[in-house]
Design goal:
5 helices; mainly alpha; 70% helix; 179 residues; rod-shaped
Length: 179
């Protein structure tokens, strides 16, 4: 706001610069609160996705076991009516069905585990705002802004995407972009 004191009032109003410092701090505080709520909601959705994946895996295992039992019953009926060769073929079919059921269960568990890992990885990628004390030394430039800082970002794309998030530098970035 200090940079724009020399501008005419009509220009300040057109540019949206007629807010006081306390209004801007209040608005940024609300934005930080909203960002925290959004992060919590994303974490909740990730947990729900993990629970859904686990439920689907359990359902797949139950269905595979049911199918294996049905196949075993069918094979036993054929075995009772057939001679030694038919009995051997039925045993082989049962073993094959059980192996396939085990493989299906293993695969379903692997898919569920992978889905959970993906959800957890997505949740970890969503960075959260940090306190001034947790910043690296080179990012500490204003000790009066104690919370709401961007963490140290590892890539240009992550840094670029951060301009669309609310943090202590949001106003500075957008006034430079639009000014």
């Amino acid at each position: 706001m200090f940079v724009f004191q020399s501008l005419p009032e009509s220009l300040k109003h057109l540019c949206g610069l007629n807010h006081t410092t306390s209004e801007l701090l209040t608005m940024s505080g609300h934005a930080f609160d909203k960002a925290e709520v959004m992060a919590e909601e994303m974490a909740k959705q990730a947990r729900q996705a993990c629970e859904k994946a686990e439920e689907m895996a359990r359902h797949a295992c139950d269905r595979a076991e049911e199918m294996a039992k049905h196949a075993r019953d069918k094979a036993e009926e054929v075995a009772r009516q057939a001679r030694e060769r038919a009995e051997e073929m039925a045993r082989h079919a049962c073993e094959k069905c059980e192996e396939m059921a085990r493989q299906a269960c293993d695969r379903a568990e692997e898919v569920a585990r992978h889905a959970c890992e993906k959800c957890e990885a997505m949740a970890r990628q969503a960075w959260t705002l940090v306190h001034h004390h947790h910043l690296p030394k080179w990012l500490k430039d204003n000790e009066f802004l104690t919370k709401g800082h961007r963490p140290q970002l590892s890539s240009f794309s992550a840094c670029f995407r951060s301009i669309f998030r609310i943090h202590t530098e949001t106003g500075n970035i957008w006034t430079h972009l639009l000014g």
